[in-house]
C-alpha cells in the first residue's frame, strides 16, 4: 500500500497541491461557459500570448507575471471581439495570434539566452511554486469565485442564449468581458503550473467530462470542479511515484476520466431510452 | 385598449442599404399582430428595433403607457448551439426572470414561483427536471415560450416560432400562442414566413415590402392587392 501522506511531507508538494487545486477549480468553472460558447480555443490562444509575454518579460528582466497579466487581459478582450464578429475568421485569427505569440516568445527567450525559463513556461513548473505564487493563486481563486458566484445566473443566461439575454436588457458584452477577464487571470497563473501547452486542457477537459453525464447546468458546473480537483490530485500523486512530468500526468488522468465518463454516459442514455420505451 | 407600441415614419437600413421605409403602425394591448414579408424585407431588423437593440435611421419607435423593455417577452430564433446545451427546463425558464433583477445576483422565491406558474401554464410540469437537450423541437420551443412569459407579461415578441417544427407540432404551437392571446390577454407580435397561418390567427397584419408595406386588420389585408395576390386561386392551388 502506497503511503500517500508521506508525499506531502515535502513542503514543495504541499504548495503544488494547494496551488493546483485552487487553479483547477477556477479553470473548471470558467471552462463550462467557454466550451458551451464555443470559445475553447480562446483559452489556448491566451496561453500562447501569455507565453510570449512571459518570455519577453523575463528577457527584459521585468517581473514576468506582473508584466504578462495585463497583456493577456487585453488580448482576451481582443480575441473575444474577433470571435464575436465572424466565426470562421475568428478561428483563423486565434491560430494566427497564438502561433505568432509563441514565435515571439521563443525568439525573445533565445536571444536573451535564458533557456531554462522557456522549458518552465512551456511545460509548467508546479513543483517549484514559491510562497509568493501561492498568495497569487489564492488571490486569483478569490476573485474568480466571488465574481463567478455573484454573476452565476447572468453567466448562465449569456451562455445559453445571447440574443434573448441582450433583448431582455442583460449587458451581454459586459458579462462576456467578465468571462474573458477571469479566463485571462486563470490562464496566466495556470501556465506556471501546467505550462503553456497544457493549460487549456485544465479548462476544457472537466467541462467536457461533466457534460457526458450531467443534465443541468448547475450540476455540470459542480461536477466539473470536482472532476478537476480529483484528476489533479491523482495526476500529482501518480507523477510523484512514476517520476513522470506532472502537467502531462494530470492531462492523462483527465483523458482516462473522459473515456470512463463517456462509457458511463452512453450506458445511462441507453438505460433511460429503454425505460422510456417501456 | 391602450397603445403599447407606436412606429412613426420609421426607416431602417441594414449595411447601408435601406430595407424598411416610412413605416407607420400602432399596436394596441390585446392585439395579435403578424409581421410577414420575404427574406431580406427587414423583419429581423424591425424586431431588433422593437426590442430597442437598434435605433431606426429615421422616425421613431415609441413604447407607450409605461411599457418597459423588461415587460417584453422575447422568443428568439433557435441557435444550433442550444441543441446540445446541458440545462434543465427549470433553469432555462427561470432565466427569463433575470431582466427584472438589476444588480440583484440571485433569484427570489417570487421568481421561482413565477417560473413554476409559467411551466404549468404551458403544460411542461412533467419535463421540469429534464434536460433541455433531450427534448423534442416542439417541447424546446414551449420551454422558450415559458421563459418569454417569465420575462414579460404584457407583450410577447416571437421571431419565427415554428421554424423546423413538423405540421402537427406547428399547429399546437400556434394554438398555444392564440390561447395566450385570447385567454391571458397578452399582446402578441409574431414574425413569420407562414402567411396562411398569419391570416388564420392574427387580427392585424404587417406585410413588409420596402416603401409599399401594408398594415391593417386581417380582413383589410385579404382585400388588399398584396393579400389578393397571395390568396388568389392560382397561388392557392400551387
Helix content of chain B: 25-40%
Structural class of chain B: alpha/beta
Q: Using DSSP, what is the number of strands of chain A?
A: 0
Shape of chain B: globular
User: Which architecture of the largest domain in chain B would the CATH scheme give at its second level?
Assistant: 3-Layer(aba) Sandwich
Number of domains of chain A: 1
At the fourth CATH level, what is the homologous superfamily of the largest domain in chain B?
P-loop containing nucleotide triphosphate hydrolases
- Estimated structural class of chain A: mainly alpha
Task: List low-confidence stretches of chain B.
Answer: none
Q: Span from first to last CA of chain B?
A: 40 Å
* CATH class annotation of the largest domain in chain B: Alpha Beta
Low-confidence stretches of chain A: none
The helix content of chain A, as a percent range, equals over 70%
| Gross morphology of chain A | globular
Mean pLDDT of chain A: 87
Q: What's the total helix number of chain B?
A: 9
- Measured by DSSP, the beta-strand proportion of chain B falls in 15-25%
Describe the structure.
The complex is a heterodimer of chains A (278) and B (238). The relative contact order of chain A is 0.16. Chain A has one domain: ABC transporter involved in vitamin B12 uptake, BtuC (Orthogonal Bundle). The longest helix of chain A is centred in the last third of the chain and has 32 residues, at 246-277. Chain A has helices spanning 4-7, 11-36, 40-59, 64-85, 87-112, 115-123, 131-150, 152-160, 162-167, 172-194, 199-213, 217-242, 246-277. Chain A is built from 13 helices and no strands. Chain A is globular and about 70 Å long. The model of chain A has no long low-confidence stretch (mean pLDDT 87). Chain B has a 6-stranded mixed β-sheet with strand order 5-6-7-3-8-9, sandwiched between helices. A 3-stranded antiparallel β-sheet of chain B has the order 2-1-4, covered by helices on one side. Chain B has 2 domains: 1-67 and 154-238, P-loop containing nucleotide triphosphate hydrolases (Rossmann fold); 81-152, no CATH class. Chain B is α/β, with parallel strands linked by helices. Chains A and B meet through helix 8, helix 9 and helix 12 of A and helix 2 and helix 4 of B.
